């Protein structure tokens, strides 16, 4: 809902916003996998 709301208000910034969240999600997943693998 948050991203849809911002897409309507700031269409030009939508790609940057989505990219930022994608990077955070991927980084979080990699860290989680690494943690599980180490322990």
Automatic annotation (TrEMBL):
Superkingdom classification of source:
Bacteria
Task: Supply the alphabetized keyword list.
Answer: Membrane, Transmembrane, Transmembrane helix
Segments traversing the membrane: 20-38
Q: Which organism is it from?
A: Pragia fontium DSM 5563 = ATCC 49100
Lineage per the UniProt record: Bacteria, Pseudomonadati, Pseudomonadota, Gammaproteobacteria, Enterobacterales
What name goes with this protein? Uncharacterized protein
